[in-house]
Amino acid sequence: MKIISAEFVMSNSNVAQCPKDPIPEYAFIGRSNVGKSSLINMLTERKHLAKTSGRPGKTQLINHFKINNNWFLVDLPGYGYARVSKKDKKTFQKYITEYFEKRKQLVCGFVLVDIRHDPQPIDLDFMEWLGSSGIPFAIIFTKADKLKPAVIEKQVRSYLQKLLDGVWEEAPSYFITSSSKRMGRDEVLEFIDGINKEFLSSKKF
Q1: pLDDT tens across 93-143, in order?
Q2: Which residues pair with 67 in a beta bridge?
Q3: What's the CA gap between 59 and 199, in Å, rounded?
Q4: 78 CB contacts (<8 Å, ≥6 apart)?
Q5: Distance (Å, rounded) from C-alpha 44 to C-alpha 50?
Q6: Which residues pair with 26 in a beta bridge?
Q7: The pTM is what?
Q8: Strands (DSSP E) along the chain, which ranges?
Q9: Cα 57 to Cα 186: distance, rounded to the nearest angstrom
């Protein structure tokens, strides 16, 4: 897939106010400081489409970007550590849940995981919730340029084994990426393009 256009549409914290366009939507989410904004900018080839920051928890709203005028990329707040008050954290965690449960245009979520770290309970719990809620998702391992190939393979294997030891009969699709090296870009976009074509033929919305 070639990214011809990528435009910011809106930010909000109310799922009911999200865009009404009947087009497929893909949500990107992960723990704070997982490299989400950098990944989005790499995928779209726009340096400043998503705001990057050295401070965890920068994204605190549902951000919609229209790509190629035929699908939405959604940048969601990170879960876990973020320098916001307990009240604010409860608020945006609630609308994250509402987004996944109520957003009809959502066809797939991407859960971002920092490949440098061992499987984290908060990531596993979130994926278990998605699975039990019947929400399709794939895993994107980020920051792969920080590790050697053999270690990357070991980390991925460890993560998938954790999932298969739990409630999963089959591991979800996954991608290994590096924003600085543009690693995994084509694979993620081809995955999205494949789903888009399915929905175009089925005219689901």
Answers
A1: 778 889 999 999 999 999 999 999 999 888 988 888 888 889 999 999 999
A2: 6, 71
A3: 29
A4: 29, 30, 31, 32, 33, 34, 36, 56, 57, 59
A5: 10
A6: 73, 108
A7: 0.91
A8: 6-12, 25-30, 62-67, 71-75, 106-114, 137-142, 174-176
A9: 27
